[in-house]
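Subject: CheY-like chemotaxis protein

B.,
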Amino acid sequence: MNKETSILVVEDENIVALSIKNKLISLGYSVPSTASSGEDAITKADLFYPDLVLMDIMLRGDMDGIEAANEIRIKFDIPVIFLTAYTDDRTLERAKVAEPYGYISKPFKEQDLKSNIEIALHKHGKELRLK
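Prediction pasted inline below.
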């Protein structure tokens, strides 16, 4: 595991965002920032250029996490993992369009979070080397 791996947390509930941030730090990742809206997520992805974005689907503002993840993928080519309580078929179908590197349902286990992050980073790194 790379201690320098930075992850942007996008979650509209502050307590949940803080909890996720603390879990990530305890796993050895850095969290340069958190965002609570899709628009904020795009701004902070541009500002901090994290290695990965953990994105909730339901967010404050006009843009949901799926739209924000799509923008982040297109503009910055940063891998996104959805971390959400929404696992219905309609949401899942919409989420596929953003080409996420993972989809973790809440509540989640710390080990599931870590393994999804490591696989996403590995896969994205491999894709970058192929380009």
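The chain has a mean pLDDT of 94.

T.
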